[in-house]
């Protein structure tokens, strides 16, 4: 009986399986169909059988250094249980090759460039793959919706689309992007960086591109793909160490409300999102203030700053604070700051005393 029970619990050895015109790589949660012609994907939840599509059209061009180039495969992709590896070549750029892979682990699928080879005649600077839909939802998908947001100085705003109805002639940019059907939601992450951001690509507003396109059958499908990657900045002596990647997480109902929408995608995004340095301290920095002084004078001498910290702490029952001491060691000459101090670090004893006492307030020892 014990042997039978052990056989039932033993996880089967996963191997590549055929899925339509592609091959499936699998994890315990997902079966990911990968195309033979390019690193394109679609996703199937293994528990429910629900599907979410990615790219639905062959990729024929890749943009290198701002110019589109025809692309093909050097050989058929090498596929294992969890990974498919491709080598992209460019007929008009002999010697230029890009190794890329698709990998699945848990509910996350990663598109990753693993190596780039260029030549003296063509140095690779930036890489774009327009229309390389990592996720897509269509008007024929039950419950299909999208949610996009950009960084906004007036506060983040999620632009949610209820239903997919109208095609758009040009793509739009987004800082974060989520798409869902009535069964599955997906969020994307990328290490996209623009060599020369400006206009629509400035301020992280085009980390992702999205566009609604009309199909031959009259249906409309919205696809989401990564923004530009910079391999070698203009004038840089050497390439960047971090190679391009983009990641997709696919999830069913993630917040337990018995419905699937963009919020489930956002919950799952926490598993793949880039961790911003210092972001884990944000909950402790509910109140932020920037006192300004000249050599412990001006409007906010250091000891007044300490008093303000104490008042705020008492008024808010000790909510966390971030106090940035903006100090200058000389005066304003010809409307220009001529020398800069370093706040509490290099300021006089009163500043260091302020720093130590502020820390005591934060620790509840005021």
In short:
The protein is 12% helix and 36% strand. The protein is mostly beta strands and 366 residues long. The protein folds into two domains: 17-274, Beta-galactosidase, Chain A, domain 5, CATH 2.70.98; 280-362, no CATH class.
Description:
Helices cover 12% and strands 36% of the residues. By secondary structure, the protein is mostly beta strands. The protein has two domains: 17-274, Beta-galactosidase, Chain A, domain 5; 280-362, no CATH class. Strands 8, 9, 10, 11, 12, 15, 16, 18, 19 and 23 form a ten-stranded antiparallel sheet that branches. Residues 1-20, 331-353 and 361-366 have low confidence and may be disordered.
* Gyration radius over CA: 26 Å
Distance between the termini: 66 Å
Main sheet overview: 10 strands, antiparallel
Supply the CATH class of the largest domain.
Answer: Mainly Beta
Poorly predicted ranges: 1-20, 331-353, 361-366
**What is the architecture of the largest domain at the second tier of CATH?**
Distorted Sandwich
- Overall 3D shape: globular
Helix percentage: 10-25%
Percent strand equals 35-45%
Summed up, the domain count is 2
Tally the helices. 4
- Overall pLDDT: 84
Structural class: mainly beta
Strand count: 29
CATH fold-level topology of the largest domain:
Beta-galactosidase, Chain A, domain 5
